[in-house]
Amino acid sequence: MIQGLETRVAPNSLDAEVAVLGAVLLDNDTLAVLTDVTPEMFYRESHRRIWQAMKNIESRGGDNPIDLVTLSEELRTRGQLDEIGGATYLIGLSESVPTAVYAEYYARILKEKHALRQLIHNSGRIMQMAYESELPVDEIQDRAQQLIYDVTSQETVEADSADGEQAVGLFMEWLEGNKGQPFATGLKDVDEMLGGGLYPESLIVLGAPPRVGKSTFALNVADRIAESYKDEYDALYFAMEMSADEITSRRVAARARVDFQRLRAYKQDPKNNPLTEQDWTRISKALETIRQVPLTIYDRPGMSYNYIASKARAHMRKRGKKLSLVVVDYLQIMDFSAFSKAGSNESSEIGKTANAFKRLARELQCPIMVVSSLSRDVEKRPNHRPMLSDLRASGDIEYAAKEIFFLYRDEIYNPDTDQQGIAEFIIGKQRNGPVGVVKLQFHGAQMRFNSLATGN
């Protein structure tokens, strides 16, 4: 503990608190302006109770005024009038402010002091975790970043509301500017079905049965987007099953169009070189491109939501660039401890995690693609094409996701099919566009998906 810290008074401004309360008594319409002010933001307990009483009166609707009479009666009914200083104190509040015009300014001071108190409180929790040392250091760091972010990310009403004039301005900015422009996946037919590509602030869920290639597809898309938008954006890939070197070897195979198994064979026995001179030329070119593509890979088993969110925020701060895409591979093997409570089950934890990623996509202003496994029901049906109900925790995931995509390859289930090397990209949900199916080329040996029309 820092010497003398325990004896210091927490940051507060009683004058600002009095001014806010007095402004409401002068002009009840002030409450409609200060919708983001909560009782907890007041330092003095009596002021918290007065604000809550004002909100209670407002919530009843009708023509109920908030004045000395109604406010005194509300507090008296709750047995709190004497505790706040009686009617005399309320009279003092009403006489303390000459005008309600500056209420928003006073409220801003109040919120700033509240944020400082929260930072002090959460810093104490961080110190306690560090002193107790009951958790791994990296988990303490993740939780510490989240505790600080919980305070610094609080938004005011100005940031998340728009009146009619502001709404029109936002629309024109969206229509004529670059804000909200999609990130093209590089798969021509897919981009056309998606209205241009993957849109910022979207949670996208990609599901598929085993062996279909969902991780390969996610990696292909991440690699293409990262390269296409490298001047202004970075992309992140969070892998929980594959290591960074394995992911890179897949990227090399896809870019060089070299059989992945030949790469592995060379690694195991370089003397029996299965790679041709043309292969090496393509590999060298692929490696040079990969060096310049801003796709950062995090490989760690059982990542938590807090870990992923904190790494994404830290990356943006360090690099000073926005993100074009974040891929999480994959949902069901994440660490859900941050969302687990007594009596909770995997389905509810997956649902809470999906909703957290939905909020993170809005915060980071980029698409987040979460790879998901499916329930075993898809293997039991005669038609193995995935559907929304096949997602584990399907209700919560369907609600949180703006788009839900599936992959299907008939050759896995029907060896004699005429759809050899063909994958179906199934749009199961698209909030602002059609659902449907796009057929793609799948080159399993080279770890890549291509458009049927162009081969790219």
UniProtKB/TrEMBL annotation:
EC number: 5.6.2.3
Gene Ontology molecular function, alphabetical: 5'-3' DNA helicase activity; ATP binding; DNA binding; hydrolase activity
Catalytic activity: ATP + H2O = ADP + phosphate + H(+)
Pfam assignment, any one: DnaB
Gene Ontology, cellular component aspect: cytosol; primosome complex
Top EC class, one word: isomerase
Start and end residues of each SF4 helicase domain: 176-456
Biological processes, Gene Ontology terms: DNA replication, synthesis of primer
Keywords: ATP-binding, DNA replication, DNA-binding, Helicase, Hydrolase, Isomerase, Nucleotide-binding, Primosome
Protein family (similarity comment): Belongs to the helicase family. DnaB subfamily.
Protein name stated in the entry: DNA 5'-3' helicase
Native source organism of the sequence: Deinococcus cellulosilyticus (strain DSM 18568 / NBRC 106333 / KACC 11606 / 5516J-15)
